[in-house]
Amino acid sequence: MSAEPEATPERGLFIVLEGGEGSGKTTQAALLADWLNGLGMPHRLGREPGGTPVGEAIRGLLLEERDLEMPAQTELLLMLAARAAFVQGVVQPALDRGEGMVADRFEYSTFVYQGIGRGLGLERTRELNRFATGGIEPDLVLVLDVPPDEGVRRQREGGKVADRIEEEGEDFMARIREGYRKLAAADPVAHVVPARGEAMELHLVIRQILRRRFPEPFGPPEG
User: Fold this and answer.
1) 123-130 contacts, C-beta under 8 A, 24 or more apart
2) I want to staple 138 with a disulfide (CB 3.0 to 4.6 A). Which of 16, 117, 146, 164 is the partner?
3) Which pTM was predicted?
4) Domain CATH for 33
5) pLDDT tens digit string along 143-165?
C-alpha cells in the first residue's frame, strides 16, 4: 500500500517595497517585518541587489564603484544576475515553505532604472527579467512615492552618501519617478503610496492596504 502523500504548505505571500531614492523603502520593509513578527507570521526579509553572497558582491560593484564606467547593458545584466541568485537562494525557498517574503526592491526597479531610465526598453528588460526570475512575481508591490528633491534631502539629512546610480542627477530621478507611476497604474497588484509623512504613519497606511488586500492572514481593515 502506498504511503500517504506529505502535506505541503501553501505558497507564502511575496510583498515588495519599491520607489525612488530616499522614499523610505528600507525603513518600511523593516517595520513591515517587525509587524509580521508580532503577528507570528514566518517570513524572510531581503534586499536587491543583494540578499545572497553573490548578490552582495554584485551590489558592491554596481553601487559603490562610483568611478567605474559601466555600459547600461552591463548594469542590467549584473542586476539580473544578482536577482537570479536572490530568487533561487532566498525568495523561492521561503515561498515554497509557506513563509512570507518581504523584499526591499525587486523587478520594478530594473524595469524603471534600466528599462526606462537607461533607455534599454521596457519589453526587452521584462523578457530578460523573466529568465532571471523563472517567472516568479510579487503578490503585492507597494510603490512609495516622493518627489526626487525630497528624497535627496532625506538622504543628505540622514548622512547617506550618494551611490553610483544615485549620482545620475535630477532629470534621471524624475524619469524614475514617472516610470514607477506608469508601471503601477497598469498593474493590478501595485499600489502607489504617498510617502511624505512620518515613517510610522506610512507604516499604518501599509498595514491597511495589506488588510484590505489579504484579509485572510491579516484581518479586516482597522477603523
Assistant:
1) 125/76, 128/76, 128/77, 128/80, 129/80, 129/83
2) 16
3) 0.91
4) 3.40.50.300
5) 999 998 887 788 777 877 777 88
